[in-house]
């Protein structure tokens, strides 16, 4: 059986740490693991299956002899280093948005469109975290009844903006409870002109603003959803709009998803049945007993949790639902490692000539 040399780029980060633990349990025969990060982390030791591994500074020649790269060190690092990795024969699964919309890069949610992996040219993109959980929940409904329109509002945890944002929430909360002045340096985005506190607050900005008034996170949800569902030629016709909001939650993105089906006769009970029988989805929908998805319950889990499914009383075929998932696992590390498992399963861990 072939064994693979796997490099984790961004191994010291919020997502990188989870990539390590997901890889420990993956259906991937691992010969060796290389842990790569910035030069600040070079020499640090991290564990893979109880074995201590020294973190190395990521450079082009770090990828010599590597079969598979799991990448999560930000878009600029991916832009610079992944083409170097591919040149050296490594297949890269990238968590960043750097290559997602490129025509020759498959954008994959396993269970939805992993059949498109055969078209890869060395780089495969992992979608945005908010996109993954929404598409995972909607896909079985789209296959069965066809979706015409999606209107989504997100409630995104601070860990989506990295380790530093999570630390900032905790510090601000502590300062506030101690009646001390607090500082905001990271959110809404590290590169923003102004920063605002997230503790006891909500920020209707994730990523930068586009000229049309939408944020780039909203743009990604709209266009990535269409690309993933493009398998089916009707998908380009799906209307999608989004509002993305940062909330003071550590881990777990929530989404209210309003969707309109082509078939106007579908019932909430039929939708619940589809969700229930789809692998990777967990139905938590029992309002009488106050059973519904919550970030605190989803954190640490790989599944996507779905509840509050109810029809729009004034628009037959339209429904509201509430979808929650761990953004660092389902929205990032688990999806990436599942893509890598599909590549191994389908014997696709090679760069086509
Ligand atoms: N699919 C999705 O929706 C998600 C995608 N992501 C993507 O993953 C990236 C990382 O996210 P996250 O883990 O939360 O961020 P963190 O800030 O927690 O971690 C960033 C990681 O990148 C490394 N890094 C930074 N600069 C360099 C460099 N020049 N060369 C090599 N490594 C570098 C850091 O190393 P060091 O510790 O040495 O600084 C660290 O390991 C995001 O920028 C985003 O692009 C993240 C969340 C969800
Ligand atoms: N933007 C997401 C996480 C992320 O990094 O997304 P992307 O990979 O699309 O840049 C969040 O802040 O919750």
From TrEMBL:
Domain of life: Bacteria
Catalytic activity: L-aspartate 4-semialdehyde + phosphate + NADP(+) = 4-phospho-L-aspartate + NADPH + H(+)
Any one biological process term the GO annotation gives: isoleucine biosynthetic process
Positions bound to phosphate: 100
InterPro entries: Asp_semialdehyde_DH (IPR012080), Asp_semialdehyde_DH_beta (IPR005986), NAD(P)-bd_dom_sf (IPR036291), Semialdehyde_DH_NAD-bd (IPR000534), Semialdhyde_DH_dimer_dom (IPR012280)
Residues binding NADP(+), per UniProt: 12-15, 40-41, 159-160, 327
Coiled coil: none
Keywords: Amino-acid biosynthesis, Diaminopimelate biosynthesis, Lysine biosynthesis, Methionine biosynthesis, NADP, Oxidoreductase, Threonine biosynthesis
EC number: 1.2.1.11
UniProt-listed PANTHER family: ASPARTATE-SEMIALDEHYDE DEHYDROGENASE (PTHR46278:SF2), DEHYDROGENASE, PUTATIVE-RELATED (PTHR46278)
Functional description taken from the UniProt entry: Catalyzes the NADPH-dependent formation of L-aspartate-semialdehyde (L-ASA) by the reductive dephosphorylation of L-aspartyl-4-phosphate.
Family under the similarity heading: Belongs to the aspartate-semialdehyde dehydrogenase family.
Quaternary structure annotation from Swiss-Prot or TrEMBL: Homodimer.
HAMAP family: ASADH
Name of the molecule in the record: Aspartate-semialdehyde dehydrogenase
């Amino acid at each position: 059986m072939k064994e693979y040399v796997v490099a984790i780029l961004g191994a010291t980060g919020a997502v990188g740490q989870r990539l390590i633990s997901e890889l420990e349990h993956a259906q991937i025969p691992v010969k060796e693991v290389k842990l790569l990060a910035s030069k600040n982390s070079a020499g640090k030791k991290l564990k893979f299956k109880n074995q201590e591994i020294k973190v190395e500074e990521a450079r082009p020649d770090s990828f010599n002899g590597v079969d598979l790269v799991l990448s999560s060190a930000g878009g600029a690092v991916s832009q610079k280093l992944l083409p170097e990795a591919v040149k050296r024969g490594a297949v890269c699964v990238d968590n960043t948005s750097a290559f997602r919309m490129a025509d020759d890069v498959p954008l994959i949610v396993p269970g939805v469109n992993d059949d498109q992996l055969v078209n890869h040219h060395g780089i495969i993109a992992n979608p945005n975290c908010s996109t993954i959980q929404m598409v995972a929940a909607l896909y079985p409904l789209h296959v069965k009844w066809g979706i015409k329109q999606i209107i989504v509002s997100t409630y995104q945890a601070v860990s989506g903006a990295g380790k530093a944002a999570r630390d900032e929430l905790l510090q601000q909360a502590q300062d506030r409870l101690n009646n001390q002045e607090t500082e905001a340096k990271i959110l809404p985005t590290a590169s923003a002109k102004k920063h605002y506190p997230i503790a006891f607050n909500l920020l209707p900005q994730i990523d930068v603003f586009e000229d049309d008034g939408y944020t780039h996170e909203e743009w990604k949800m709209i266009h990535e959803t269409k690309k993933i569902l493009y398998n089916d030629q009707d998908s380009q016709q799906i209307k999608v709009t989004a509002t993305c909001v940062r909330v003071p939650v550590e881990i777990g993105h929530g989404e209210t998803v309003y969707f309109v089906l082509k078939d106007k006769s579908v019932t909430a009970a039929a939708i619940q049945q589809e969700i229930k029988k789809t692998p990777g989805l967990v139905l938590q929908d029992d309002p009488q007993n106050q059973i519904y998805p919550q970030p605190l319950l989803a954190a640490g889990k790989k599944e996507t949790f779905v509840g509050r499914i109810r029809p729009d009383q004034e628009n037959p075929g339209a429904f509201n639902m509430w979808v929650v998932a761990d953004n660092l696992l389902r929205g990032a590390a688990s999806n990436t490692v599942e893509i890598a498992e599909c590549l191994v399963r389908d014997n696709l861990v090679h760069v086509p000539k």
